User: Fold N-(5'-phosphoribosyl)anthranilate isomerase from Paenibacillus residui.
Amino acid sequence: MIRPAVKICGLQTVEAVRSILSLPIEYIGFVFAPSKRRVTGRQAAEMTGELVREREQGRPAPASVGVFVNPEPEELEEILKIVPLDVIQLHGRESPEYCHQVKERFGTGLFKAVSISMSQTASPADLVLPFAGSADAILLDTYDPVHGGGSGKTFNWKVIPDYLELTRAAGMKLIVAGGLTPDNVSGLISAYQPDGVDVSSGVETEGQKDIAKIKQFVERVKSR
Ligand SMILES: O=C(O)c1ccccc1NCC(=O)[C@H](O)[C@H](O)COP(=O)(O)O
Assistant:
C-alpha cells in the first residue's frame, strides 16, 4: 500500500519547524487566516527559511503550504513577496475561477478545501469537479462556522469513497483533514487509503505543537 502524504498544519515557531525536519513529512502549513494559529508573513518567512536552508544543504524538506480563507489577491501577493510558499491552500468559499487565477498568477501548487457538514446539500460532484484543472488536491475538512478550519473535529468518513472516486477521475489528489489524531489516523488509512492526511489540533498539547505527538502521528501514517 502506498502510504499517504503527511501535512502538519499550524506551525508557529522556528523551533517547532526545526524539530520535525528529520521526519518524513511532505507538507507543513502556515495559517494566514484569522485563527489562534495565525502567523505573520515575517514569522512564516523565518520558518520557511529553515526549509530553504535544508534544501541548500542537499537534504529533503517539506513543501510549505500557506492557508488562507477568502484572501484578496493583494494579500497573497504581499505574503508571497517574503514567503516562498510552494502551495496555496484556499480554505473558504473561493470559486474555481479564482483558484485558477491564483495558480496562474503565482505559479504555486493549489489545495482547495471542501468543508463537510451534517447539513450538506450540494453533491460531492458539484463540490469537486469544478476544481479539476485548477486544484492539485481537494482537502476534505470538517465544516467550521467560525474560522473555516482547524476545528479538531472529525466529519462522517463514510462520504470519503465518493470524493476519492471523483478526485481520481478528475486527476486530483484527496487529502483528509479534520480531527485526525495519532489514535484514529491508522483506522482512516486502512479503511479509505487517501492520498494525504492533514492534522493540526490532534498533535497539540495546550494549544502548542507537541513534537512527541507529531512523531507518533507520522510513525502511524508511514508504518506498514
Ligand atoms: O488551523 C486553523 O486554525 C485554520 C483556521 C482557518 C482555516 C484553516 C485552518 N486550518 C487548516 C488546516 O489545514 C487544518 O490542518 C485542518 O483544518 C485540520 O485541522 P484539525 O481538525 O485541527 O486537525
